[in-house]
Design a protein that fits this description.
34% of the residues lie in helices and 26% in strands. It is α+β, with helices and mostly antiparallel strands. It has 2 domains: 137 residues, Nucleic acid-binding proteins (OB fold (Dihydrolipoamide Acetyltransferase, E2P), Beta Barrel), CATH 2.40.50.140; 259 residues, BirA Bifunctional Protein, domain 2 (2-Layer Sandwich), CATH 3.30.930.10. Strands 7, 11, 12, 15, 16, 17, 18, 19 and 20 form a 9-stranded mixed beta sheet that branches. A 5-stranded mixed β-barrel has the order 1-2-3-5-4. A 3-stranded antiparallel beta sheet has the order 8-10-9, with no helix packed on it. Strand 2 and strand 3 form a beta hairpin. It is elongated, with a radius of gyration of 29 Å.
Amino acid sequence: MKRVFSDQEKVRRQKMADLEAKGLDPFGHRYDRTADSKSIFEKYDAYTKEELEEMAVDVKVAGRIMSKRRMGKIGFIHIQDRYGQLQIYLRKDVMTDEDYEMFKVSDIGDIIGIEGPVCRTDTGMLSVKCVKFVHLTKALRPLPEKFHGLTDVEERYRRRYVDLIMNEDAKKVAFLRPKIVSCIRRYMESQNFTEVETPILTTLLTGASARPFITHHNTQDLDMYLRIALELPLKRLLVGGMEAVYEIGRVFRNEGMDPNHNPEFTLMEAYLAYSDLEGMMDLTEGMYTTIAKEVMGKMEYQFDGYTINLESPWKRVSMTEAIKEKTGIDFKAINDLDECLRLAKEHGIELEEHEKAYGHIINKFFEKYVEETLIQPTFLYGHPVEISPLTKRNPDDPRFVDRFELFIAGHEFANAYTELNNPVDQLERFEEQLKEKNLGNEEANDIDMDFVEALEYGMPPAGGIGYGIDRLVMLFTEQPSIRDVLLFPTMKQRGE
């Protein structure tokens, strides 16, 4: 289908042709800047107009034209670079006729280079006086209207590049996220962890309960999965003696999309030999408070309608204790499955066939009565063995495992374990998962015999944890949706 251009687009394309006719490349070449908006304000904002004139500091800056006005033989432009906006002051009498003409025909959205002295205008605005105007890139589409930008939220996410141009908040989050991830890496290194990389393509579903994305390896004529977790390869490295390892990487789960879920997301998993559940709690609390202090400079955050305080110490409570607080039911004291099924029916809890088990019923009660009430940072521990197939059993009560989840504002932010290192027990857990798969649980794990073999060589006692990095960034940047912290979230097709 032939594209129909708007009147503005037609004018801009004609300007592109005019540049070409003058022998100029509409899409520019290298331009060596000597300064940017941030460095100019940091270095020169304290000086008066007269002091700047005496200093006569020449700079070369570049950026996108965000506003433009011309009054006779003078003009003003605001250009935007990665740090913000900078005013450019233009006078016809200090520019060549060709450069001034280039300024006159330039459009908002064009990318330009400016050379000249740092100055202050009569109104006191720190600026750069243009001596040389260099066209770098012609914008063939107009930017959205200045004061509203992209008002359609879906279009903001689809055309993130425009959102970043028009929306300072979006740009702030885009730059904060890598700072947070860098802080995590520094923190983990300070705790003597080694960062590693493990395969994204796998032939088995292990490490989490999730439906996969399936792909095909042509050479081997083999169906493969995009990984749903990082766990088992990292634990193999504990067997190999690396002792303290972590990975930050993309994982893929074939699930729905909502403000807290995206089919591909960033997961961090860490494993520490000779540690346990308590060690993972300490590691987590330390990591969050380090980010809060070193990157954000504050301990309180507005998130999902709540004021969240990250000051230590954080609350620690077992799943059965939390359920008892809300319902009066002490599942720790109940051993009879029929009694559990009766309580589930009384409380209107519906169960799939594979969920008619002690542990699944406890989890259903937790999800209905407790989960959304955990607002301040809370380590919830003591999960039933049925919902934790890779976790070490609690030595005092084997119905439960040594696992915790970190909840903030009613959402899970981390999942941790005292890791299962008994190969016999591990194989039995895998076999139980296979039974669930046969009963229709599409998220049950496969049997990974190579991992069982690895455990037979001996894995030290260990603690392990997984963090959803996207949700962590949502908290620290106070964003309501995972789409606000992903530069390119998965989107429905237009028109759906």
